[in-house]
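stage 2 :: seqdesign
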């Protein structure tokens, strides 16, 4: 198992095979729901890496804008 797989497993994902391709899946609370319903979310390792990198970039951008904005 490579480092990427270990990373996503530590994030709560489980490996599933869909049409011969490896996916990482986990159940997440559905936003905006008061009933506590969960939705299963699956993605490839590449898709998850893109999402993580994009989230980090957006966070850094927001933090930069917050610290550089005039008061």
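stage 2 :: out
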């Amino acid at each position: 198992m490579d480092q990427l797989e270990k990373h996503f497993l530590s994030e709560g994902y489980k490996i599933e095979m869909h049409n011969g391709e490896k996916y990482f899946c986990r159940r997440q609370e559905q936003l905006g729901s008061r009933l506590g319903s969960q939705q299963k979310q699956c993605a490839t390792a590449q898709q998850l890496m893109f999402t993580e990198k994009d989230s980090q970039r957006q966070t850094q951008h927001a933090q930069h804008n917050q610290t550089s904005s005039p008061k």
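stage 3 :: structure notes
- Residues 17 and 24 are 9 Å apart (CA to CA).
- Helices lie at 3-10, 45-68.
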